[in-house]
Design a protein that fits this description.
Helix content is 38%, strand content 13%. By secondary structure, it is α+β, with helices and mostly antiparallel strands. The chain has three domains: 170 residues, Anaerobic Ribonucleotide-triphosphate Reductase Large Chain (Alpha-Beta Barrel), CATH 3.20.70.20; 58 residues, no CATH class; 111 residues, Sufe protein. Chain: A, CATH 3.90.1010.
Length: 424
């Protein structure tokens, strides 16, 4: 890793200069959760934290000793004399150990736990075009269940819940060890990071999972606790705080909204409330009708007709149909508006405005429609107290990767266990 600093190419000279001045490397590990499970130690126990600290301590000790040997052989890093190591401790590298995000690496290594994270869940749903939906279990969990003779119907209940906690028929020994990230208290997440941080001279990538009921005060306590324990940084993630985030087990949407599978289109309702507005464009008049749900204010569809000289009837009808299809397919209205507003200027629009005609806001029929739809949505949001979020493109409540599989929240990143994609 030290040699790579010299041969690597950098995007900017300043980055190359700073990197070679301190020669920081990021030796780390992944799969801590797997190791704890194999050792029979709960992630949220003092024994588990001590085990993790010993692993990190050994890595730091060996890395530090090797860096000192390299300093004797090749010299200290250029900024050594300005560092806290000078003059007694010779080092080739300013820092040696980092617990970095390891989404893709963990997937390739076949581990279940990313970095120092606990397992995400003991069971989750996977979707394929050929086999459809099926349940996937943690291999370590299945192995433990087979050893204890856990029946298949009990495993079905675990799959339904996405958890083995409080499931009748699951031995206490298994339930004690196999806890998903959401089943571990925020305090235990932070305590684990603190134990590892003691032996890491860079930062630690870690997500502190909070329930959806967490308050501002709960989050404040997490940051205060992390600060008091000397952590360099934490990532706090409150369940459900982002539209489309992953949920474990079968959960109902409290708002009663339809959860769409990818590619699913909501059927047109038999009746809806609506408003018709006149738009003055470069091609004369357009009449835009926006229909919405009377109980929630969610926009459902649009209809566009033209006046006697209102431009291309086929074009406006096609635009109206596509807007309606996109809305009922789960595309947020804001995204549709952004696309329509991004269209080029219409010569007829510019000519009419140049002649002094009072036109609707916009630079084309498409952008005029977008401005009006955005205004209507804003009015509906205000009227219905903000309870008008559009249906998101979800599959059973899970955010999907491009490969079609669900994404997991780990190490402050989104990762796909199927194809190895990760985004931080």
């Amino acid at each position: 890793m030290d040699n790579l600093i010299d041969v690597a190419e950098y995007p900017l000279p300043l980055i190359a200069e700073a990197t070679r001045a301190t020669r920081k490397i990021g030796l780390g590990f992944t799969g801590l959760a797997d190791a704890l499970i194999m050792a029979g130690l709960p992630y949220d126990s003092p024994e588990g934290r001590d085990y993790a600290a010993r692993i990190a301590g050994i890595m730091q000790k060996v890395a530090g000793a090797t860096s000192r040997e390299l300093a004797e052989e090749k010299g200290c890093f250029p900024e050594w004399e300005k560092s806290t190591y000078h003059p007694e401790k010779k080092r080739r590298n300013a820092t040696c150990v980092t617990i970095a995000p390891t989404g893709s690496v963990t997937t390739m290594a076949g581990c279940e736990g990313y970095g120092i994270e606990p397992v995400f869940a003991v069971a989750y749903k996977k979707s394929t075009n050929v086999a459809g939906d099926f349940e996937v279990f943690s291999p370590l969990f299945l192995e433990a269940c087979h050893k204890h003779g856990v029946a298949r119907d009990i495993l079905k209940e675990v799959a339904r819940r996405g958890s083995c906690q409080d499931v009748k028929g699951i031995p206490g020994e298994i339930a004690r060890i196999f806890k998903g990230a959401q089943e571990i208290s925020p305090e235990d997440h932070i305590l684990m990071q603190a134990e590892v941080q003691k032996h890491v001279d860079n930062a630690v990538s870690k997500t502190i999972n909070l329930p959806g009921t967490a308050t501002l005060e709960d989050i404040k306590k997490c940051y205060r606790m992390a600060y008091d324990l000397g952590l360099k940084g934490i990532t706090v993630f409150r369940d459900g705080c982002k539209e489309g985030t992953v949920t474990i087990g079968k959960k109902e949407d409290p708002s009663g909204r339809k959860v769409l599978r990818r590619g699913e289109i909501l059927p047109r309702p038999r009746s809806a409330h609506g408003m018709t507005h006149r738009l003055d464009t470069g091609c004369d008049k357009l009449y835009l009708t926006v229909n919405y749900q009377p109980d929630s204010g969610e926009i459902l569809e649009t209809f566009i007709t033209t006046g006697s000289d209102g431009g291309c009837l086929v074009y406006t009808e096609a635009t109206s149909r596509l807007i309606s299809l996109a809305i009922r397919g789960g595309i947020p209205v804001e995204e549709i508006v952004e696309q329509l507003q991004g269209t080029h200027s219409c010569p007829s629009y510019m000519l009419a405005r140049g002649k002094g005609r009072n036109l609707s806001p916009g630079r084309s029929c498409a952008s005029a429609i977008a401005y009006k739809v955005a205004k209507i949505k804003k009015e509906l949001d205000k009227k219905y107290n903000g309870n008008s979020e559009q249906v998101a493109m979800l599959a059973d409540g899970h955010m999907l990767c491009q490969c079609g599989q669900r994404l997991e929240q780990a190490e402050g990143c989104l990762v796909c266990r199927s194809c190895g994609f990760s985004k931080c």
